Amino acid sequence: MSLKSRKEAIKNREIKLYQIPEEEKRKISNIIKSELEEEDRIAFAYLFGSFIENAYFRDIDIAVFVENFKESDWYYYEITLLDKVEKK
């Protein structure tokens, strides 16, 4: 999606943006950290993208490096982690 298309989608409210105080962002980051630290297979994870870098954001991007992992299991594991973090 081009920048012009993205701006038009935001203007037309097709893309919802969120804005929360920095303290609330820290709380959310800590919840995500706590949940992911419980996973033995996760070597490291980090937050990136607009949630971290900007005042407004659409979603929360999380990169996760997993050890001892069969490639065929990635989709199930991703959905399981997503469900676990979203519930908090």
TrEMBL record:
The lineage of its organism: Bacteria, Pseudomonadati, Nitrospirota, Thermodesulfovibrionia, Thermodesulfovibrionales. This is Nucleotidyltransferase domain-containing protein. Residues 32-77 form the Polymerase beta nucleotidyltransferase domain. InterPro entries: NT_sf, Polbeta.
